[in-house]
Amino acid sequence: MTPESRPRVLTGDTPTGRLHLGHYVGSIERRLELQEEYDCYFLIANMHAFTTRAERSEEIRRDTLEIVKDWLSTGIDPERSTVTLQTEVPAIAELSWFFAMLIPFNRVMRNPTLKTEIDAKGLGDSYPFGFPMYAVGQCADILAFRPEFVPVGEDQVAHIEMCREVARRFDVLYCSVNPKADDADFEKLGGVFPIPKALVGRVARLPGIDGIQKMSKSLGNAVFLSDSAAEVRKKLNKIFTGRQSPTEPGDIHNALMQFVDAFVRDPNRVAELKDRYARGDNLGDGHIKQELGEHINALLDPMRERRAKYEGKAGDDLVIDIIKAGTRRANEQAERTLWMAKEAMGLGFFRRGLRLE
Ligand code: ATP
Ligand code: MG
């Protein structure tokens, strides 16, 4: 198959910090598999970073480059996958406007992921108008590429559901697709948009080292892919379990054991650890943390090696070249989609070109 005829995948990250272990097991691992067979688009949602930190543009710029470095260090390969920047794909912003007309305001505000984020990030009731807009914008991030799959963590499933609703609504309204048609048939029946499917990763929700919230780059509870081996060990030591001694029966569903599930890849060893933990068979939290540290550092070591290539100003320049080349490819796809959408909406008066300098 030529790259263009392969089915497409879209996913992305907001540059609000560096990538962490939750991203790795929740989404990146999947991306690495998918890039073998699919035409993958990985989007840096830098516009969305402004929804919670408009006054910290320097930080957003830095995190944009850091996240791409994180991606490259995990093995995302810009020769095979398209790495692109939201702010230089204008079709996304334009589609966001059109999609905002297709979804009731109350439907956006009922979105459980938005509610959880407002609480977890302490946004109170003073978040900007643009904050809930990001959920609509995310529909455009995805649909601009008309992908089949969207690999995400569990917290994003509610967003993907909204995106699917928008795609159905558009196709029914502007392409006369029968609203009762099977999701899988929407494109075949003349719809501009496929109804994309969420692919939840191996670990749907990795907790943070606080043991309560999901691990999140903006909540101060994350082990970052770019942390040193010593930092990793130090952070793992902080995972709170409340257990007093190695002979106290432990809860095999606590945060520490969720880490064991995620990072000890030998199922026999996991079973053995859980069994002894549950019985309080002289197995201390400290011992488990040490073993975990070895597994996690073994996972991160090759990333540390790959990352070295992108250090300093020369590394930044290399990364910007990669983003630019990817954004050129991404715009071809997104402009095509926008034109199809405009034609369907009766807006196909004349076509435009888009050029990156
Ligand atoms: P922020 O704090 O800025 O919201 P985040 O850590 O939640 O950052 P996102 O950029 O919102 O990261 O999410 C990127 C992708 O990683 C999404 O698909 C999300 O579902 C997934 N993801 C994020 N955190 C976790 C986690 N702890 N476990 C599993 N998947 C996760
Ligand atoms: Mg998030």
Total domain units: 2
- What is bound: which ligands? adenosine-5'-triphosphate, magnesium ion
Strand order of the largest sheet: 1-2-3
Q: Please describe the biggest sheet, giving its number of strands, its sense, and whether it closes into a barrel.
A: 3 strands, parallel
Order of helices and strands: EHEHHEHHHHEHEHHHHH
CA-based gyration radius: 22 Å
What is the CATH first-level class name of the largest domain? Alpha Beta
* Structural category: mainly alpha
Total beta strand runs: 5
Verbal overview:
By secondary structure, the chain is mostly helical. The chain has 2 domains: 3-205 and 311-344, HUPs (Rossmann fold); 229-308, Tyrosyl-Transfer RNA Synthetase (Orthogonal Bundle). It has 13 helices and 5 strands. A 3-stranded parallel sheet has the order 1-2-3. Strands 4-5 form a two-stranded parallel sheet. Strand 4, helix 8 (157-175) and strand 5 form a beta-alpha-beta unit. Helix 9 (229-237) packs antiparallel against helix 12 (285-307) and helix 10 (255-263) crosses helix 12. The longest helix has 33 residues, at 312-344. The mean pLDDT is 95. Residues 13-14, 16, 22-23, 26-27, 152-153, 155-156, 203, 205-206, 214-219 line the site of adenosine-5'-triphosphate (ATP).
